[in-house]
Amino acid sequence: MTTHRVRGLAVFVGAALAVWFVMSFLTTLETMTAVMGRVSEDIHGISTAASAMRQDTARMVDHAAAMQQAVVALDRNLNQINHDIAGIQNTMAEDIERMRIVLDGIGQDMGAVNGATQRMNAFMGRMTYGMDRLANTISPLGGLGMP
Questions:
Q1: Which residue of 2, 58, 130, 147 shows the fewest CB atoms closer than 10 Å?
Q2: Helix, strand or coil for residue 130?
Q3: pTM: predicted TM-score of the whole model, two decimal places
Q4: Structural domain span for residue 86
């Protein structure tokens, strides 16, 4: 009878161990399911973040392309500005040369006017001298108040 009890006890202990093992296994499966759920949520979050990163990268590529186009346009505009400045410098050099020629001509004309003024001054001096001589002579019309 003792063996029966021992055997019954062994079966009971075996059954208890089996129940404990199954309960532990189910708890472990439940924990693994919860962990896998969290992992799935994390993977979903990572996927969402990766999608957002792809969109951000695409936007960055678009912005980089737009910036490159802007730099090319700026370079083209700067080249045009340099060309325009060179044209302005060339035109200014031509205008300065024309002004130098005109001023040289004006200087020559001023010299001619100066010479004419000196000749006119000499003529006026001779004329004044002649008028003074004439005024100092006795005129037949002196009685009329004329020289």
A1: 2
A2: helix
A3: 0.47
A4: 2-132
pLDDT, tens digit (0-9, with 9 covering 90-100), for 99-132: 999 999 999 999 999 999 998 888 888 887 767 6
| Mean residue pLDDT across the chain | 87
For residues 87 and 94, give the distance between their C-alpha atoms in angstroms, rounded to a whole number. 11
> What are the tokens at 44?
């979903």
d(CA 118, CA 109): 14
Angle 10-12-17 from CA coordinates, rounded to 5°: 90
Q: Mean pLDDT over residues 25-38, rounded?
A: 91
Cα–Cα distance, 80 to 84 (Å, whole number):
6
The total domain count for the chain is 1
Residue 37 CB neighbour total at 10 angstroms: 10
What's the token pair of residue 33? 């399911």
CB of 72 closer than 8 Å to CB of 65: no
Residue 144 predicted with pLDDT over 60: no
Judge whether 79 lies within some domain. yes
Q: Which residues of 81-94 are buried (b: 16+ CB within 10 A; e: fewer)?
A: eeeeeeeeeeeeee
Mean pLDDT of the 4-25 span:
86
Tokens at residue 61, please?
Answer: 């590529």
